[in-house]
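Is this the right way to post structure tokens for a design question? Let me know if I should format differently. Anyway, here goes:
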């Protein structure tokens, strides 16, 4: 039985949460403020927390300043969706094997995957560039999708394996007695019961793929028509004058797909993470 917190402990908890929220939300609040301010007021002194004039002109002007903005956002969604699909398709059988099968070096293999995530992806850019050039995949969607999925798969396996392990083994044994193969058991029994875990893995993979596109696309692609939104904004706003209000407006627009995805799946993600954490 847990004891009630004292008043000063409650106050300290709320103060800590408030400071954390301020630290996380401050950049987004500042970006929204800049996007709603005219350029003439952005460089004025002293700094004003609330802009003296609020205008939505930047949200209309950014479409003229960046003619391919819609295409860039669509490219980001295509790349992220393909990375998510590949990640989930490969993480499911691998996570199931780690959850159900016993083989020599299983723990070492899991720790190796965890260790791979500790290294920066920038260390692999040069060998990946040589590999993609030799296979003729440079300047294609595949050049951005395949490396992105490769970086996401170890984390997806680690997230999915506890969900698959929490499914009662007796259900699979009963299906095996009836003559079902491993593939049938995985498809007809395990996957329907691991829905919360699949939602968590798919959502985190999509968000991770959306966030990592800049460095991958900058290195492996030079075709403007398949550029993601991060590179599109970087290339345009770095040419001449930086229109900060339009840049912030376009940046806020670019994160809307991820925010919308998290808003729709928030309950499922939290519930899935909780389910995976309490079941053994």
């Amino acid at each position: 039985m847990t004891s009630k917190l004292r008043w000063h402990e409650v106050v300290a908890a709320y103060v800590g949460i408030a400071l954390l929220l301020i630290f996380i939300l401050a950049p987004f609040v500042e970006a929204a403020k800049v996007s709603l301010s005219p350029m003439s007021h952005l460089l004025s002194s002293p700094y004003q927390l609330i802009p003296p004039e609020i205008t939505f002109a930047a949200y209309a002007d950014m479409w003229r300043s960046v003619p391919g903005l819609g295409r860039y956002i669509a490219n980001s969604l295509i790349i992220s969706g393909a990375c998510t699909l590949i990640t989930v398709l490969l993480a499911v059988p691998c996570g199931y094997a780690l959850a159900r099968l016993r083989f020599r070096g299983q723990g070492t293999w899991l720790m190796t995957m965890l260790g791979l995530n500790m290294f920066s992806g920038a260390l692999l850019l040069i060998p990946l560039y040589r590999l993609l050039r030799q296979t003729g995949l440079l300047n294609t969607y595949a050049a951005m999708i395949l490396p992105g999925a490769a970086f996401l798969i170890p984390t997806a396996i680690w997230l999915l394996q506890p969900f698959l392990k929490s499914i009662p083994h007796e259900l699979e044994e009963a299906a095996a007695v009836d003559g079902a193969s491993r593939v049938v058991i995985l498809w007809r029994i395990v996957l329907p019961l691991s829905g919360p875990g699949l939602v968590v893995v798919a959502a985190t993979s999509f968000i991770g793929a959306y966030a990592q596109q800049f460095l991958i696309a900058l290195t492996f692609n030079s075709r403007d028509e398949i550029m993601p939104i991060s590179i599109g904004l970087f290339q345009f706003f770095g040419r001449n004058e930086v229109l900060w209000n339009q840049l912030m407006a376009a940046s806020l627009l670019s994160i809307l797909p991820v925010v919308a995805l998290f808003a729709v799946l928030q309950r499922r993600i939290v519930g899935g993470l909780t389910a995976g954490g309490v079941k053994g």
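Format looks fine. Someone answered above. Worth noting: The mean pLDDT is 84. The two ends are 22 Å apart (CA to CA).
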